[in-house]
Amino acid sequence: MDLMEKITALAKRRGFIFPSSEVYGGYQGFWDYGPLGVELKNNIKREWWKSMVYMREDVVGFDAAIIMNPTVWEKSGHLKAFTDPLVECKKCHHRFKVDSVEDKCPECEGEFTEPKTFNLMTEVLLGTTEPKEKSYLRGEITQGVFVNFENVVNSSRVKIPFGIAQIGKAFRNEITPGNFTFRSREFEQMELEYFVRPVDVESKDMFEYWKEERMKWYTSLGMNKTKLRFRDHEPEKRAHYAKYATDIEYEAPFGWSEFEGIHHRGDYDLKNHNLSYKDQQTGEEFTPWVIETSGGVDRAMLFFLIDAYFEDGERIILKLNPKIAPYKVAVFPLLRNKEELIIKAKEVLKIIKKGIDGPVVWDDRGNIGKRYFAQDEIGTPWCVTVDFQSLDDATVTVRDRDTAKQQRVAVDKLSDYFSGKLK
Ligand code: GAP
Fold first, then answer.
1. Residues 294 and 387 both lie in one domain
2. What value does the mean pLDDT of the chain take?
3. Are residues 294 and 357 in the same domain?
4. In this structure, is residue 103 part of a structural domain?
5. 343-359: b (≥16 Cβ within 10 Å) or e
6. Which residues have C-beta atoms less than 6 Å from ligand 1?
């Protein structure tokens, strides 16, 4: 099996990611997140929110509606320009994104039509009277922030330069969804819109600053530096709103692939929506420029999984950073049929649960070796075993996922031990 097949199989076997509506054969471009997947995804989003909002003085949070007045999409340029070039096979009529195929159809080797533009916005019909009102699921979460720019300025104490952060679902009618969750039709974005004075040098410096900040964030959560790179967009490849743009790419098994974009959007959006900023002290009025960092939660999660995947013989280890690992600690009674061990282990479980922020799980299936094997495969950083010695001296064995080393730790020191490691 190649690495993508292994990751897809692991994701399904262990409850990270399932094909959406699988009982009805799935649905192309849609995925469901299982008990472990939702933890990993939430942890990524929480770490992002912490670093982008809580750790800063100049950023506030936001959460816009998914469906907005369709005029938003007309003004933002999405109805005209949010397109991909598409070709259709003249023989089997399959359609493909131009840059995803060579000159012959991969299904039947037929010839392609000339490229046509295809709009990626997902239409929805609303209301009770016919004809129903056509609206759209948002193609990027961004526009909700722009159209609320003045609401945020007038209701909070933000002053230029400042940012508005948001995490939420976006939808694109992708021509060729694929590479597992990498290209989906429903996905989540985590975005910062950072508003600056319309000055070339200042905005360029901010663009460079955010590029570095975002790259640092991925490596701070353990992503392998050598698998990451920046890639500047050539002018003809830039989105319709971008003055300049850089991607952060990961070297995936299917090639270097973008999973976050840093865009200089200039005044494109605020001007289109006819919005501006007034400096309360100087009275000066202007249209700010915007530096945007736009990451995909699903793509980040996929790359965190790929990056963390290691094999040691039969053993699979997901070396996820403890901050994003779905479970932080697993607690085992050495034997499942010894009541005194069970009682003590339940006590230990409770103590650790109270002491740390994140899920602590119970595991008493099979022998200890099998339990280590299972926890390594889902990335649990530490396993705690309660054994007969624990009954005598109130210590337990803590085993580290990455080194497989074991250490005796006093039960009353466990909370400090783990919270120290998780900091
Ligand atoms: N607001 C700017 C914006 O939406 P983008 O480069 O089109 O920019 C940003 O998208 C990020 O959203 C991408 O880097 C990617 O991580 C994620 N993304 C875009 N399309 C996606 C898709 N079809 N499936 C999964 N993630 C996607």
1. no
2. 96
3. no
4. no
5. ebbeebbebbbeebebb
6. 140, 142, 172, 174, 183-184, 187, 189, 191, 258-261, 292, 294-296, 298-299
Q: Which domain holds residue 366?
A: 329-422
Q: How many angstroms is it from 307 CA to the middle of ligand 1?
A: 20
Q: Which of 72, 138, 140, 244 to mutate to test the pocket of ligand 1 (most atoms within 8 A of CB)?
A: 140
What's the average model confidence in pLDDT over 248-258? 97
Q: Whose CA is nearest to atom 15 of ligand 1?
A: 296
Q: What does the block give as tokens for 59? A: 């950023």
* Claim to verify: residue 406 and residue 372 sit in the same structural domain: yes
Distance of alpha carbon 71 from alpha carbon 135, whole angstroms: 9
The answer to whether residue 411 is domain-embedded is yes
294 and 168 Cβ atoms separated by less than 8 Å: no
Q: Is residue 143 part of a domain?
A: yes
With 80 as the cut, is the pLDDT of residue 1 above it? no
The CA angle 209-210-212, to the nearest 5 degrees, is 70
98 found inside a domain:
no
> Are residues 171 and 122 in contact, defined by beta-carbon separation less than 8 angstroms?
yes
- Ligand 1 atom closest to the Cα of residue 172 is 23
Indicate the number of domains in the chain. 2
The residue whose CA is least distant from atom 7 of ligand 1 is 140
CATH number, domain of 255, equals 3.30.930.10
pLDDT digits (tens, 9 = 90+) for 366-418: 999 999 999 999 999 999 999 999 999 999 999 999 999 999 999 999 999 99
Question: Among the atoms of ligand 1, which is closest to the Cα of residue 177?
Answer: 23
d(CA 110, CA 112): 7
Q: Of all atoms in ligand 1, which is nearest to the CA of residue 296?
A: 16
The CATH number of the domain holding residue 405 is: 3.40.50.800
Residue 67: how many other CB atoms lie within 10 Å? 13
Q: How many residues does the chain have?
A: 423
Give the pLDDT confidence of 197-251 residue by residue, as tens digits. Answer: 999 999 999 999 999 999 999 999 999 999 999 999 988 878 888 888 999 999 9
Distance 292 CA to ligand 1 centre (A): 12
Tell me the CA–centroid distance for residue 296 and ligand 1, in Å.
Answer: 6
Which H or E run includes 38?
helix 35-49
Using the mean position of ligand 1's atoms as its centre, give its distance from the Cα of residue 189 in Å: 7
Residue 58: pLDDT above 80? yes
Residue closest by Cα to atom 22 of ligand 1: 183
Asked whether the predicted pLDDT for residue 184 surpasses 80, the reply is: yes
Query: 334 CA distance to ligand 1 centroid (A)?
Result: 47
